[in-house]
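ligand=alpha-D-glucopyranose
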Amino acid sequence: MSRDLDQQAIDVLRQNDRGGFTVPTARLYPYQWNWDSAFVALGFATFDSDRAWRELELLLEGQWANGMVPHILFRRNDPDYFPGPSVWQTPSHADGGGLFPSGGISQPPVLASIVHWLVQQDGNIQRAARLFDKVMRWHRWYHTDRVPNGHSVVATVHPWETGRDNCPDWEIGLSAMEIDPDIGVYERKDTDHVDPTMRPSKEQYDKYVTMIKFGRDHDWDQTIITNDGPFVMADPGIHFILLRADRDLLALAKRLDRADAYSEIENWIELGVAASDTFWNDDVGAFTAYDIRSGKRSDGFSNASALCFFADAGSEYQRGRTLENMRRIQSKVRFMMPSWDPDAPMFEPQRYWCGPVWPQMNHIIAKGLNEHGEHQLAETMRMDFAVLVEQSGFYECFNPLTGDGCIGAHFSWTAALWLAWASPRNNAVAA
Ligand code: GLC
């Protein structure tokens, strides 16, 4: 059974391979996505190390002159996806964009961590050395262009930048903004491919498109977007992933003897550790998102709240309360870890980031828990993910109450994390 699933996972990755880069799943997401590619590399690394590095090299081909690595790379146009390159209208290469059209925002910077883990596995320091400066420039972009004036925390300017697209966290920023009356008529494609009750609403989409229009109207000047854009929130997901990635980048710099980079990265880590407290919400007992301009805080526990372990952030008290929340949530669901608190308003077990379990989040949350001695909970998260795949297949995400697969099938990061993490073969390798 599991041997079959290993082979099926390899087949999913091969089928989604478009010649050196992987699409998350055919039709619904027909391009290369940023953090998807990073996780996908972990899967390829289990059977084709060269192909794993290639995935990351191709992702970095999309890097802009300012250092940003966009969330989607539109290598070739696909009319089946909205919003495509003609909506984003990002700068050409000559004007500071990447080698081909892309989205105008970024995504959670898990890449440095993945590069570090790949080197630990296969020792390929030459491939890592070729990527190092590019990853440094991306982190520098996050720590400068994405920090609003007068603040010390990295912002997010679009829910899609967080990778947690329609999480209820973003309602605070969305309700503070207006829909631009000039966004025009547009046709969504996502709801042609999957059940609309699993996808974001029409009003949310109008606001997403308004944010894109703002970027386009300002020639994708990232400092204007970060300071004056319609949506400026702080996401514990991006914050903790970046802090962990800074730590892994420092370890990588040491491995590569890049002493010239040490002090700059150390400074980012110091700032990241200090900024962690700004996310603390003592009423909830968790690190939660907030609106940088109004200071209004989200009062729901999301799976991003649980990433404090991964970042090695927070005090013992803060981590203890986070764990209490996780145990309470565990008693409410069949499968850990739902993306939104089942006791909070707006929990919907099959609507995307309002409840479903996400494989890549489970993986990094569990990694952090293991590093903090919480082995039992970490193992629950791994086993729950394994059962979800065995029961339902390689879905994008899963209903935490029933285990049903949600949204896209034959999904790359699910296949990759099965291979790299959940497959029983990993126990055999470790034994
Ligand atoms: C959705 C997810 C995002 C992911 C993308 C491609 O937009 O919310 O995290 O990167 O799909 O899989």
